Amino acid sequence: MSDNESEFKLEMPKVGIIKGVLAKDIEVVGGKVVNIRTCARPYKNMYSVAQLRTIKKVIEKYGSGKVHLSPRHNFEIPEVKQKEIENVLKDLYISGLFPGGAGTSVRNIFTCPDWCSKQIRPVQELGERVSFNSGDKDMPNKVAISFAGCSNSCSRPQNADIGITAIGEVGVNDKTCPDDCKECIRSCQFDAMEKHNGTITINDKCTYCCKCVESCPETVLSIKKTGFRITVGGKEGSNVMFGKECALFVDDFEAFEIIEKVLRHYQEKVAFRPGSSKKKERLGEVIERLGLEDFMS
Ligand code: SF4
Ligand code: SF4
Ligand code: SF4
Fold first, then answer.
1. Shortest-distance atom of ligand 3 to CA 182
2. Distance between CA 45 and CA 64 in Å, rounded?
3. What is the 297 CA–ligand 3 centroid distance (Å)?
4. How far is the CA of 151 from the centre of ligand 1 (A)?
5. Cβ–Cβ contacts within 10 Å for residue 103, how many?
6. Which H or E run includes 103?
7. Do 145 and 264 share a domain, yes or no?
8. Residue identifier of the C-alpha nearest atom 5 of ligand 1
9. Domain span at 147
10. pLDDT one-digit tens code per residue, 228-245
11. Could you tell me if 83 and 124 lie in one domain?
12. Which of 36, 62, 93, 237 is 20 to 30 Å from 207 at the Cα level?
């Protein structure tokens, strides 16, 4: 070992003591091995080759050669020898990987990839900012936050505690449509388009998905403005809940403020689940008990 290497000292977080490394991210299994849940911080929506190499090294050296990719983009490394936790955390830490994404906290932020051609408005930077501010924050129960670049909702925002979906308002240009064209009407799943005397109108059933714009062969339709729909109180699990809409056409800054407010109100207004003195309500249960208006006020 060279002189330089021997001088190198890494400030390692200690399990259960330092913020970001909580015992809940490291599950003890059978007393000798643990499962470690890890993710990149700040959230980058993807893992680098160097990080994947680190995970490979860790699972080969300290684990059982297996790794699981969770639905929220965490790597879960099972069966790591308990006595090697410090070494594993050190290897992960050097690669920008931290224990996280478990327990009663803000779970790993989930966004679509930024290369998807369907996205109406980018969500990755907003997701990263929210992760930087609130990722792993202790909460009364787990909180999933999902961002989708369009209404296809690949990141499942409707079933997240807080869901952010990019939407667009469709404008009809001053052009007459060909008589036989009904492409946009066919593409709209919400019966929101009508055609009278060669002119298209959009009624109030519109959900701002913008599918009709893609379908128009004559560029009569275009996206006039974009923004986010925010839904709160969704959840997956045995009792699935769909989030309630709390904001429409907000910009990045407003969305950030609303997310922070929802997290704050959740901490302030939560109660124990009926009949339990240990488990606190999920966000959706608080909203169901109080009503959305009271919860937000
Ligand atoms: S939700 Fe839309 S933008 Fe995001 S990955 Fe799916 S299709 Fe692409
Ligand atoms: S934006 Fe979506 S819901 Fe609205 S008219 Fe177009 S296809 Fe229909
Ligand atoms: S708006 Fe476009 S798709 Fe719809 S009828 Fe007119 S030309 Fe066809």
1. 5
2. 26
3. 43
4. 7
5. 17
6. none
7. yes
8. 112
9. 110-296
10. 999 999 999 889 999 999
11. no
12. 237
Fill in the amino acid letter for 242: F
pLDDT in tens, 14-62: 444 333 445 667 776 666 777 888 888 777 678 999 999 999 999 999 9
Beta bridge pairs of residue 235: 241
Task: State the pTM of this model.
Answer: 0.88
How far is residue 47's CA from residue 113's CA, in Å, rounded to a whole number?
A: 12
Task: For residue range 153-206, list pLDDT tens digits in order.
Answer: 999 999 999 999 999 999 999 888 999 999 999 999 999 999 998 899 999 999
Is residue 243 within 8 Å of 159, Cβ to Cβ?
Answer: yes
Residue nearest ligand 3's atom 6 by CA:
177
Using the 3D structure, point to which of 68, 99, 130 is the last residue of a domain: 99
30: Cβ contacts below 8 Å, ≥ 6 apart: none
| CATH code, 135 | 3.30.413.10
How far is 203 from 161, CA to CA, in rounded Å? 30
- To the nearest 10°, the Cα dihedral for 267, 270, 276, 279? -30
Nearest ligand 2 atom to alpha carbon 202: 5
Q: Which atom of ligand 2 is nearest to the CA of 151?
A: 2
- Residue 281: CB atoms within 10 A of its CB come to 20
Q: What is the pLDDT of residue 22?
A: 54
Q: Tell me, what amino acid is at 44?
A: K
